[in-house]
Design a protein that fits this description.
The structure holds three protein chains of three kinds. By secondary structure, chain A is mainly alpha-helical. Helices cover 47% and strands 11% of the residues of chain A. In chain A, a hairpin with a 7-residue loop joins β7 and β8. Chain A is globular, with a radius of gyration of 23 Å. Chain A starts with 9 loop residues before the first helix and ends with a helix. Chain B has a three-stranded parallel sheet with strand order 1-2-3. Chain C is of the alpha/beta class. In chain C, the strands form two sheets. Chain C has a five-stranded mixed sheet, covered by helices on one side. In chain C, strands 6-7 form a two-stranded parallel sheet. In chain C, β3 and β4 form a beta hairpin. The model of chain C has no long low-confidence stretch (mean pLDDT 86). Classes of the chains: A mainly alpha, B alpha/beta, C alpha/beta. Chains A and C meet through α3, α10, β6, β7 and β8 of A and β3, β4 and α3 of C.
């Protein structure tokens, strides 16, 4: 039975809490890993003066899965399934980041149909992630109705993912070189049906929260950060765009054909929780726009690259081609070799910049994979944001940063 | 319900004490509001509109372990989190049950390394294992109903062996 | 000349021998620096060359080759939309380098993670302690000589043998 206690001594935290805590003037409270509103297993040590927060020390690592080390033990394509499980609300986005890194490292081409399908599914993932964020954010502020509504829409997106890949969440649908299999016939009508209803539903959510005096009271001027501070602390994604900096990797370093789509980058200037909410609502609408354009412009053609050195052949070919059998055998037993060298590919996840640093060493297994995850940098800013606020505000601020512990701890 | 006989029109049903205890335990089982990783999202989806868990009496999830009967371990258990989970389990009052939801807490799942406890049954005794990565909400509900069946077949009035 | 090339040229003139080499791979540039010149390099890059976002900070273990550790930085310039990589190579026994939290406060948790996972010490870091592993954990997991720690898979031929050794919680 595991025995290590989690109590911290004063000496370990002396440099982090103020002098008053050491004298017993303020209370150091543990908002532990199991708490209704920590969005996963995040532990916060709050130093309280009454209800006001003097300092806040986040303690992470309760979900550290050792994904990076595990990835060094298996071949490139086999570890793709682990990338789904990092930021578990942005499964396809993680797949995309890792696949782009592999494709850059080995210089593999991706056919246009696969690129547009990747954009479409990534935007649907962004939508479903924001929907879940909205539901849990409102749940934290006790506006429970929104939770039921957003999960209803999310189920439709889950059905679409299940239709493509067989799995609701951990799809592993994007593979190096394209997609795992072609989009099914029922995909287009299902997405069109979804696009018909979703703008209305987003309006319904806006009706519930945007002009709600109780919501405004709890989120205006709560957790304010300026754009210089946000950039310095490394915040990216909607929290940064809510301070006025229009940094979006889809525009800055376009990948997978994003440059052909017409969409806006919503920003706000206040930098508080309400602004972060407003930016995410607008992003949902922009995602709907991109999905519409992608669906209308979906080209035909192959869904995965033909480069048999990296992409396994379809099973039909195995019956009559010896090279296909050899490639199949080589790729599934050993994997493809990647050259020596390292690449870094940043993409835009619903939480911010997700970057994959991939280093190859000539062998079939990744020598080093590191994911620069957005929530890691965003939650770093929590002490700065929570200073001087009430305990109830910490809940609002934390949920507005949209942390996912799988993302932070990997 | 048991050796029931409706005594005329008086609205009285007879049954055994065990059946009555088991019936009341299963019909209003409150899970602990604790999810660790991706399976927690499917647990939330099971609680939400399409796959309602409230029909089984699990209307609310209690945040305090003292008030909860059921601990659904949803997600991967790491070495850092294991003592915390054990403490939560110890704080729950009898009768209590544990469902290991998902592959990671049943057997370690996709991960096999230094940081993950391969199966939460190293930390606490588990009643039902639900397979899947993550299990569909229907899978979780099937696990819960299996637990209900086990409880209905339980003999709470016999002395423990 | 792209902004990255301008940046590399100014680094060369500012640091002199502190800049060992410049690598270009798949369209991305990485400047390899000496450990002592990482802090002035970051200052120059942030103040004069407008690289205002520290996008990534991580390390690679090249054991058993020496130099053993390569600490990798990725800097992003918003105004010019360019990524620049920096790399510092460190010996295995002497894995220390100055912390850049004074220039990029973002580096705080990233450097803690590198310390936790690799054992690389950052001098001048305000709060260098473990971040992802439990506080009393021994060893640095992402080093190449640290075992993966996997458990043996139970197949039917070794089922009983492993079952005897496996720990189950009784109560």
């Amino acid at each position: 039975m595991p025995e290590a206690p989690l109590e911290v001594t004063v000496d370990e935290l002396r440099h982090l809490v103020s002098e008053r805590a050491l004298q017993g003037d303020t209370l150091v409270l543990n908002m532990g890993p199991q708490h209704p509103s920590t969005h996963g297993v995040l532990r916060l040590l709050l130093e309280l003066d009454g209800e006001r927060i003097v300092t806040c020390v986040p303690d992470i690592g309760f979900l550290h899965t050792g994904i990076e080390k595990n990835m060094e033990a298996k071949s490139y394509e086999k570890v793709l399934v682990m990338t789904d499980r990092m930021d578990y609300l942005n499964n396809l986005g993680n797949n995309l980041c890792y696949c782009l890194a592999i494709e850059k490292l080995v210089e593999l081409d991706v056919p246009p149909r696969a690129q547009v399908a990747r954009v479409l599914l990534t935007e649907l993932t962004r939508l479903s992630s924001h929907l879940l964020w909205l539901g849990t954010h409102a749940l934290d502020l006790a506006a429970i109705t929104v939770f039921w509504y957003t999960f209803r829409e999310r189920e439709i997106v889950m059905d679409i993912f299940e239709m493509c890949s067989g799995q609701r969440m951990m799809t592993s649908y994007f593979r190096p070189g394209g997609l795992w299999r072609d989009l099914p016939r029922e995909f287009e009508p299902a997405v069109r049906q979804f696009l018909k209803i979703i703008p209305d539903r987003i309006d319904q959510y806006e009706d519930l929260l945007t002009n709600n005096p109780m919501y405004i009271e709890r989120t205006r001027n709560v957790g304010v950060i300026s754009s210089e501070q946000a950039l310095q602390i490394g915040m990216t994604g909607p929290p940064l765009r809510a301070t006025g900096v229009p940094l979006d990797m889809r525009r800055e370093q376009p990948y997978s054909g994003y440059e052909q789509f017409d969409f806006e980058i919503p920003t706000a200037t206040a930098g508080d929780t309400y602004a972060r909410y407003a930016v995410r609502m607008q992003e949902m609408r922009q995602s709907v726009r991109i999905v519409q354009q992608a669906l209308d412009s979906m080209p035909g053609g192959p869904f995965r690259s033909n480069n048999r050195k990296f992409v396994p052949p379809p099973r039909a070919e195995l019956g009559h081609s010896m090279e296909a059998v050899i490639h199949h055998f080589k790729l599934w037993t050993e994997g493809f070799p990647a050259p020596k060298g390292s690449v870094y590919v940043p993409v835009e996840s619903p939480r911010g910049i997700l970057g994959c640093f991939l280093e190859g060493d000539g062998g079939p297994k990744p020598y080093r994979v590191h994911f620069r995850t957005p929530s890691f940098a965003n939650v770093q800013a929590l002490p700065m944001l929570a200073k001087g606020h009430l305990v109830a505000d910490v809940v609002a601020i934390l949920s507005s940063l949209d942390p996912i512990l799988g993302d932070i701890d990997r | 319900m048991g050796i029931e006989q409706k005594l005329g029109n008086m609205g009285v049903v007879t049954t055994t004490l065990e059946k009555a205890i088991n019936w009341s335990r299963t019909r209003a089982m409150w899970p602990l509001l604790s999810g660790l990783a991706c399976c927690a999202i499917e647990m939330m989806a099971a609680q939400a509109a399409d796959y309602d868990m409230s029909r089984f009496g699990m209307e609310l999830m209690r945040a305090s372990p003292r008030q909860a009967d059921l601990l659904i371990v949803a997600g991967r258990v790491t070495r850092k989190m294991a003592p915390v989970l054990r403490r939560l389990y110890d704080q729950m009052a009898e009768p209590k049950w544990v469902i290991a939801m998902g592959d990671c807490c049943s057997c370690g799942g996709v991960f096999n390394n230094y940081a993950i406890v391969p199966g939460v049954d190293e930390v606490m005794p588990v009643d039902v294992y639900v397979a899947g990565c993550p299990p569909r909400p229907e899978g979780l509900i099937h696990g819960i109903l299996t637990l209900h069946e086990r409880i209905m077949a339980d003999k709470p009035t016999r002395a423990a062996a | 000349m792209s902004h990255v090339d301008t940046a590399v040229a100014s680094l060369k003139s500012a640091l002199g021998p502190g800049l060992s080499s410049v690598e270009a791979f798949r369209g991305q540039t990485t400047a390899v620096l000496e450990a002592s010149s990482i802090l002035p390099a970051c200052r120059t890059l942030r103040d004069q060359l407008e690289f205002d976002l520290l996008a990534a900070l991580t390390a690679v273990d090249y054991w058993p080759q020496e130099p053993r550790f390569g600490v990798v930085y990725q800097l992003y310039s918003l105004a010019h939309r360019q990524l620049l990589g920096l790399k510092v190579l460190l010996e295995g026994q002497q894995a220390e380098l100055p912390s850049i939290t004074a220039v990029y406060p973002n580096a705080n948790w990233h450097e803690r993670e590198v310390f936790d996972m690799f054992g690389v010490k950052f001098t001048g870091h305000p709060d260098l302690r473990r971040i992802l592993m439990p506080f009393e954990w021994e060893g640095h997991p992402l080093r190449k000589d640290y075992p993966l720690g996997y458990e043996e898979v139970q197949f039917s031929f070794n089922f009983d043998e492993i079952e005897r050794r496996k720990k189950y919680a009784k109560e």
